[in-house]
What we know:
alpha+beta; Methane Monooxygenase Hydroxylase, Chain G, domain 1; Periplasmic binding protein-like II; MetI-like fold; 3 domains; four-stranded antiparallel sheet; 19 helices; 56% helix; 8% strand; elongated
Amino acid sequence: MDVDSPTQQRRSTFFTSVPSLIFRLLGLAVIDAFGLWLLYRLVGDGLYPLAAMLALVTLGINVIFLNERFFPLRWMAPGLTLMALMALYPVLFTIYTAFTNYSDGHILSKQQAIERLGQDQFLPEGGSAYSYTVFRSPAGDFQLWLQDAEGNGFLAIPDQPLVPAEEVDLQLDEDGIPVAIEGYERLARGQTLRYLQQLNALSFGEPPDTIQVRNLNEAAPLVQRFVYDEERDAIIDQREGDIYFASQERGSFIAEDGRSLVPGYQVTIGARNFERLFTSSALRGPLVRIFIWTFAFAFLTVLTTFALGLLVALVFDDPTMAGRRLIRSLLIIPYTIPSVISVLMWRGLLNPRLGVINRTLNDLIGWAPSWTADPTWAKVAIILINLWLGYPYMMLITSGALQAIPKDIYEAAAVDGANVWQRFRNITLPLLLVAVGPVLISSFTFNFNNFNVIYLFNEGNPPIPNTPTPAGHTDILITYVYRLAFAGGRGADYAFAAAITVIIFLILVVITLFNFRFTRVWEEVGENV
């Protein structure tokens, strides 16, 4: 007869004991209740992708705690939930956004856009505006004393008919305003400003004489300007009489003459953003330059940092060198300082007018590069800055890898007559690449999206002239995406930026697979050494 292991026995006890069952069900009930409430709010606002992800996460939590097979995952449930919501969802949402019109003026869902348009109000023809005085109770209730242009006064209470001055038993001052209302405090103008937002949300009187506070000086019988007609799927402008029909293709409410209401709303537009990326000659110009420079920047960064890091590691690999540990520790300092500080420091050092480097070069040779204005020198400066930031890491990695190479291999090679260069090329480098190959791949991937160095040094400048969308000579793909989404000056084009991001992701996948293929080649070489 089979005997259950202690783990299986604990698992069985957890799922069969009444207290554990009650505790799990109560916990899941709270989680499900909160999830359902949040799902209701998200669906009501039209946020369907986030609602779908939340539903899957909630379902997964229930499966983990109700199915004995997934018992070991119970401790990982919080981490898996956060991973799904904070890592997986943004990736999926970015892909979804690439197929929408998500941009300035089209950020809200359709329901949210309708609600936003419904907040616009206007004073109808023939409507009278009032000056007002606010009275507030200790409980936070409000009453208004209204006065029209003729000086007639009215007491206005939320959701109750207006009461003319002659029908209220109140003592009025010389301005025709009550001296006091029992249970209420009269507010000065400065005090009214404090409660203006609350007053704007209240309606005083009853239809058709509903009064709303417009600003600090005026209250008026305002009417909702834009009303949504669900049957016709259109917005009716009650002030102008125009009708704006919903356009699924453009994500806006559009009149017959082509005018559209702002804000619009999000809609899926298929592969239009990708078509724009690959077919627009205006966009293709800067994109080709940026694409080439992105590869060059990542490749040159990995090459230079690896080469310098390996050189330093080889120099200090000699055990007879005095003070090598101290010097090696000092060389790690650039890696320990946050990159934000280092880049800004280099930005000051390379300042064309005040930078120490340029002033020194001008004093010595009478000339200094224009590190920020000249496209070529700007790229050289970025490579140098990244070299300063990256070589200590490569030095650490290669130092450790060098220690793992057996010394007897070098002794055998020396006996066979191999010189220093031959030993390095045929022994050190192949064995080193086997160990650090994945690190080089990850470094290439990181620098392919190295936003900080580019943006902090010169924000991708100098600018490329005559481009329809702002672009700079030192922009890489990720900084160009940032320009499009946030810093273009022509409105945020999130959907187009998301499309470029998807392309970047696919490029990195191909590069990573390609590089791992070469990693296996290095491993085969290492096995044959």
